[in-house]
Amino acid sequence: MKNIYKYTLAVLALSFISCDPEFDSPVTEDEFYSSGSADFSKYVAVGNSLTAGYADGALYITGQKNSYPNIMAQQFAFAGGGEFNQPLMNDNLGGLLLNGNQIAENRFILAVDANGNPGPVRLEGNPTTDITNHLPSTYNNMGVPGAKSFHLLAPGYGNLAGVPIGAANPYFARFASSESATVIGDAVAQNPTFFSLWIGNNDILGYATSGGSGIDQTGNFDPSTYGSNDITDPNVFAMVYSQQVDALTQNGAKGVLINIPEVTSIPYFTTVPTNAIPLDAATAAQLNAQFAAYNTQILPGLAGMGVISPEEAALRMINFSAGQNFPIMTDDDLTDITAILQGPPFSLPAPLAALLGQLRQVKSDDLIVLTASSELGTTPDPSNPQGIIGVTIPLRDDLVLATTEQARVSAASTAYNATIQALASAKGLAFVDAKTILARLSNGGIPYDGGLLTSQFVTGGAFSLDGVHPTPRGYAYMANMMIYAINDTYDATIPTVHIGNYPTVTISNN
Q: Would the pTM of this model clear 0.85, i.e. be above it?
């Protein structure tokens, strides 16, 4: 079966072309850039992977140098901005080591498979960044990949001893001031005059990218009990976020707050089509015959017994037709009917009962995650060529974000954003609506001199090869949006950058 998606190489080639360096607001002898009522002499950026410059599934030097805080700091220099230091990785491979053992994968690059189809693959090579080699300095970029909102206040989040057991963050362990340090504490200790805070994405992202395999912890106010893929309770988020803003502004620092985009709009969720299975009429008819008893006898029988509702019975119906089809999947939100199917009156063999236990077809408003593209349509068992994932073998639940799961993500992000915007207003801080910005990328794109920035995977220019984090060009655009908000809020005249000067997909180790 052909790959689920293909990319046109000619179009890709165009996306790699960068425009000549220039500023949207060019410096001339007649112009003077002002910080307005802000003071950029000590800028500290706080956040997660988005702040660190993470891209292509890893943190590496080129990505860090093109992080939005570093781009902003370069522009702040025109109006009194000071030095901006980052905890740079040792190489452009992006992997992490712990005592010589690799604990984080290398970054993605674009490669072409044996059939001529381009796609992301991990860059080969031995990384040289060992987190046991502690960095002795303090850093203006306090972006920590993987951090959730409450992690920024957690003592010991950078304790090297906690990394192997998942009690600490390997990236923060490289540069934390002490074993008991907190991210916010280390940021505030630098006495910033200006800050940016972009946190909260990971409080819902893990749940979303794992196809809702975590727990929606709304109502649970104890984050120490949360799993890595759980949704953070909005009240917990509001409490810790308020503490962070209070700490960063306690000495009169001004700053910019950025809200949380709808994560379901990123290429990780929008690249693989839901009707990803092509079938001819004969194959569709054969499959329908195999599921006929399930549709016409078993499901009505279960509904009649009161085991499932008529609505759930309708949801679980399996139907194929000639053309593009929705794959079958398991859905752990459905009633598990495995044991019931093994008993009377059905008495199905255990393997068949297990197959049907939580089976349904993907629906048009579900979202199939990017990594599913490597599994859909494949035959995992060479001895069973009829065992095709999505056709006769269900796609795993963790590879599909169902509508009910999307609603949980949206409800949480909406609550987080209400907190962020309210605090920006109460504190008189600049505010950037990243949610609206991402929506623009997903709906028609954003024009700039020389091109159009969109959320299309690989060719759109805004997102890197992990389908989640921006490219340098995407980060440059976000930096401009922050600069606009800063200029508007503080009567500053910081120059923006020309985003066409920044690359999109990285195709070599540079």
A: yes
Topology of domain 9-270+404-501 in CATH is: Rossmann fold (3.40.50)
CB proximity list for 292: less than 8 A, separation 6 or greater: none
Contact, 248 vs 187, CB < 8 A? Answer: yes
pLDDT tens digit string along 90-135?
999 999 999 999 999 999 999 877 677 778 999 999 999 999 999 9
Half-sphere exposure for 153 (CA within 13 Å, toward CB): 17
Q: In terms of C-beta density within 10 A (0-12 exposed, 13-18 middle, 19 or more buried), how is residue 400 classed?
A: buried
**Domain limits, the chain:** 9-270+404-501, 277-361+367-401
The SS3 call for residue 364 is coil
Rg (CA), the chain: 25
Is residue 401 within 8 Å of residue 407, measured between CB atoms?
no
Write the DSSP symbol of residue 80. Answer: T
List, for residues 28-86, the tens digit of each pLDDT value.
434 589 999 999 999 999 999 999 999 999 999 999 999 999 999 999 999 999 999 99
Other C-beta atoms lying within 10 Å of the C-beta of residue 377:
18
Find the helix or strand (DSSP H, E) in which 400 lies.
strand 400-401
